Amino acid sequence: MTTLVESEEHKSLRAAVAAFARTQPPTLDAEDNKRLWQAAAKLGYIGVNLPEAYGGGGAGITELSLVLEELGASGNPLLMMIVSPAICGTVIARFGTEEQKREWLPPLADGTRLMAFGITEPDAGSNSHRITTTARRDAATGDWLLTGRKVFVSGVDIADATLIVGRTEDARTGRLKPCLFIVPRDAPGFERRPIDMELSAVERQFELTLDDVRLPAAALVGDEDAGLLQLFAGLNPERVMTAAFGIGMGRHALARALDYARERTVWKTPIGAHQAIAHPLAQAHIELELARLMMQKAAHLYDAGDDAGAGEAANMAKYAAGEACVKAVDQAVHTLGGNGLTREYGLGRLITASRVARIAPVSREMILNYVSHQTLGLPKSY
Asked: What's the pLDDT score for residue 230?
């Protein structure tokens, strides 16, 4: 297995997605986004990582991240690809019951249904050990009752259900352990409130309130005693896909800057001929390529079943892509000068959007903590 050179199959997939993406108009609102999602799903791109037996493409996160990167490079990234097929689809495919797989995987693959993912809480962030959303059994019926709050949950308004990370009590130790539940959007007691974001994005962010949401026993995904394993089976693809999101956005910004630098002429010379313009753009390209290599390594490790190795590489890929994305966008805007902040060129909105790759789903500082402790063996400060 090599991650240094793409296979001919992957090159062909990349070319096909890029060609498709170039034919699509900009996604300016939710309806545009839905049309793009359905068009991509019809070609098999949305469910490329899901099992063939359930209508997917039978490939992996490697191929799904490639799709998202190319859509992003065209200027039309689909944020919910990180959530619906990569996190939720992967978790259900690996750990769901046969009934859950039959119910959810085919419509997730063909784009007719979406799932959101709720883990972050106001006081815990994404720290699964501090999550306070709790699930308890109704002894009389065997149902689950979920109570808690979630924040910064993407696309709940367009999702048919949300995969919620809660915690249940271990009967042997009394300790709380993470578990995953499928919560339908219309479940009584499940309420959402949009968060007013200063972020130009089609997909909205929500705060969720779960007030004794009653779920059947079958809403639990996988084994109640394997919560962390199942959780990280979804979080590693999330980090890989966030890296793809950032790399695609960075490539898009860089391409706009390169076009401008070739055409914009001052004193009879294209500004791209000047090293003060050319070198920073070359550096941005190099850093995006380096981030892509680590992303491909992480995706290959995950698809090969090496969850531990994928965890380290996925965190590093997400860190590298976030940094490269922000730098590429910043340099692109700077290359265009005042034009970089006009609506005509569409780069100004990326200044805020590019920060998402640094902040979510885990901050660069927490990734540095992970590498410090897990990779370098340094003691924890907390």
From this structure: 82
DSSP string, 40-56: HHHTT-TTTTS-GGGTS
For residues 245 and 250, give the distance between their C-alpha atoms in angstroms, rounded to a whole number: 9
Burial annotation 329-353 (CB, 10 A radius, 16+ → b, else e): bbbbbebbeeebeeeebebbebbeb
On whether the CB atoms of residues 48 and 67 are closer than 8 A, the answer is: yes
Q: In the structure encoding, which two tokens stand for residue 226, read together?
A: 């394997």
Contact residues for 338 (Cβ-Cβ < 8 A; gap 6+)? none
Give 236-245 pLDDT, tens digit per residue: 999 999 999 9
The model's pLDDT over 169-192, given as tens digits with 9 standing for 90+, comes to 765 555 667 899 999 999 999 999
- Sorted by sequence, the CB contacts under 8 Å of residue 210 that are 6+ apart come out as 133, 146, 147, 148, 149, 150, 164, 183, 189, 190
* pTM for this prediction: 0.94
What is the rounded distance in angstroms from the CA atom of residue 242 to the CA atom of residue 136? 33
Count of CB atoms situated within 10 Å of the CB of 274: 12
Distance, in Å, from the CA atom of 118 to the CA atom of 149, rounded to the nearest integer, reads: 9
